[in-house]
Amino acid sequence: MSTLRGATAIVGIGQTPYYKRATSPDPELKLCLRAIVAACEDAGLDPRDLDGFVSYASERSDAQKLMPALNTREVRFAALAWIHGGGIPGALSLAASAIMAGQAEFVVVYRSMAEAQGQRLRVAVAQNDTAAQYLVNGLESPAQILGLRAQRLFEGAGVPRSTMQAMAQAAYYHARNNPRAYGRNTVLDDETYASARRIAEPYNLFDCSRENDGACAVVVASAARAGRLAKTPAYILAAPMGVAEGGGALEENIRPYASAGQAAVARRLWTESGYGPEDVDVLQVYQNMTGMAVASLIDHGFCTIENAGAVLTFENLIAPHGRLPVNTSGGDLAEGFIHGMGLVAEAVRQLRGESCNQVPGARLSLMTGGPGDTMSSTALLGTAATL
Amino acid sequence: MSYEFETHRIVGGIGADDPYWRALEEGRFELPRCAGCAAWMWPAHWRCGRCGSWELHWVAVEPVGSVYSWTRSSYAFDRVRERAPDVPYVTLLTEVANTDGARVMGMLVGSEVGLRIGAAVRGEIQRPSPKSKGYPSICWRLQA
């Protein structure tokens, strides 16, 4: 087991409303400040006491820009986890590592996004790192590239497409109880799903995440400090990041292909935390596209390619009584999409008993990073009873 | 010789595949093998991770293989808007025969009849065009 197991906890969460892309009343940096200040208020901390700043991907609101407005005493640690949504739990791991190494006491992990005039968020997020092989051949969006991946899972390996529909319907079902959810007024019945416009096969509109303006932040502190703060701590049991041989930037030549690329980090997650998939109470699964979230669940061992159709049904995926309640805020599809960061806040809410779709007595709460990314990460959070 | 793709350079990949595009622009389909251990290496890289060689040999490959995966794009995505008039279009990921499983992307041309994973395809080289962002390209046609 890792020395990071249970050594730190998420002690505060904060977020702005989800705005339709390019409609935020505030620019990115101000959204970021609002989320960070809200997370500090939630924790009962003075924002001035934050001394660590961690984000991932193409985050532009860096510590240097934030510190004057937070009246920061001293920035002692600042870092960016590589890659895109795959890096969220990895960002938690960076924060935990910095705290355990004595480099910082209160580390805020955050993501802020507001679409600049004329530039789609996903273009900014791609950071100009799409190889010519894709762009020459009409491929640029994750929907298309992960469409190739998913096609291999569904047509190739025979996983039923009903799993994608169940993931989408569970997300929209949960969103209906969530006043923050951007998709709360959408009733995703079978007819609506079946008749939705195609985006990139095998995905239709409802299989794809949104693009929203907004910001979300969580504060990480040592377990010792966490116990003295305002809210029930969500202990970080494990948050491994990485990719195994056969993966990486290989332009669709990764092996194995019909996967989310998370099998290796999932194995580390279970080893480092001492728990297994059967122990988890509630899951926030990064769902850029439904098909990749299905692959993520398979990589984590919640089901197999063979039984995915039987396990990933709507009834099993919904709170409060499904076997595998997934994306209880509505998640990336139906709550809103700040590059997946909202999933961390929901994973914490479940352990506090504060979710709009609470799983009764949830003790172990999983949050996965972006599936199908060239590198990824995954996190298991737990209550004090799980330490 | 100067190459058209070099004036439209796309950054973001590993960047060791210039010989691939040069050959394609000259009408040849070539893939790299390690000069040290002869392993196929796609995408091309700067160093062979298996034997440590820094050299590649680019060899002519018959452009035949099978559909490894495919997607049909039904939306004019932002960074490939040149393809908007062709929506919906199909892009293939083709496993090229006799290359130890190298997978090469390309547009599907011709009929979609019989489109499925495993279907046999043959490649056709196209000159640089705005749709392929000034790069040459290999397209795949399903074989009856």
Describe the protein:
- The complex is a heterodimer of chains A (387) and B (144).
- Chain A is α+β, with helices and mostly antiparallel strands.
- Chain A is 33% helix and 17% strand.
- Chain A is built from 15 helices and 13 strands.
- Chain A has helices at 28-43, 63-70, 88-100, 121-125, 132-136, 142-156, 162-175, 190-194, 223-226, 263-273, 290-299, 308-311, 314-317, 331-334, 342-352, and strands at residues 8-15, 19-20, 52-56, 77-81, 106-113, 198-200, 203-204, 212-222, 234-238, 241-242, 282-285, 364-368, 376-382.
- In chain A, the strands form two sheets. In chain A, strands 1, 2, 3, 4, 5, 8, 9, 10, 11, 12 and 13 form an eleven-stranded mixed β-sheet that branches. Chain A has a two-stranded antiparallel ribbon with strand order 6-7.
- In chain A, strand 12 and strand 13 (376-382) form a beta hairpin.
- The longest helix of chain A is centred in the first third of the chain and has 16 residues, at 28-43.
- Chain B is mainly beta and 144 residues long.
- In chain B, 6% of the residues lie in helices and 33% in strands.
- A five-stranded mixed beta barrel of chain B has the order 3-4-5-7-6. A two-stranded antiparallel sheet of chain B has the order 1-2.
- In chain B, a hairpin with a 6-residue loop joins strand 4 (89-96) and strand 5 (103-109).
- The longest helix of chain B is centred in the N-terminal third of the chain and has 8 residues, at 18-25.
- Classes of the chains: A alpha+beta (387), B mainly beta (144).
- Chain A binds chain B through residues 120, 122-123, 126, 128-141, 143-144, 147-149, 151-152, 155-156, 197-202, 249-253, 257, and chain B through 5, 10-14, 17, 21, 42-43, 68-75, 77-80, 83, 86, 88-89, 91, 93, 101-107, 116-117, 131-133, 135, 137.
